[in-house]
Amino acid sequence: MSRIGELQLQLDSVVATVDAARRVLADGRAVDLMGLEARVAALCDTIGAQPERIASRYRPRLIALLDEVDRLRSDLEAQRALLARELGTLAARRQAIGAYAKKYLGK
After folding, report:
1. Is residue 87 in a domain?
2. Helix (H, G, I), strand (E, B) or coil at 49
């Protein structure tokens, strides 16, 4: 396979990983992004090391990938905010239960 073909496969793989992560988050499940940053960095380094005529072919796809990563970041922030609210609610309930238990059960 040509170097250009390999780069295209790597780029497609990273795009698919980001898309899959967004779908997993949309389902309300936790997502494992271990290694994604290193893969993106390696891909960008490899493309950046290519002659301009080759590297320029990837510019639109890299910009689209950047947009998708930004959407993933927004999705992650939204999930984090939701979890923080839920944890805050649980903490308040736990505190109320503790107060009632102390008052009415003497514990």
Report:
1. no
2. coil
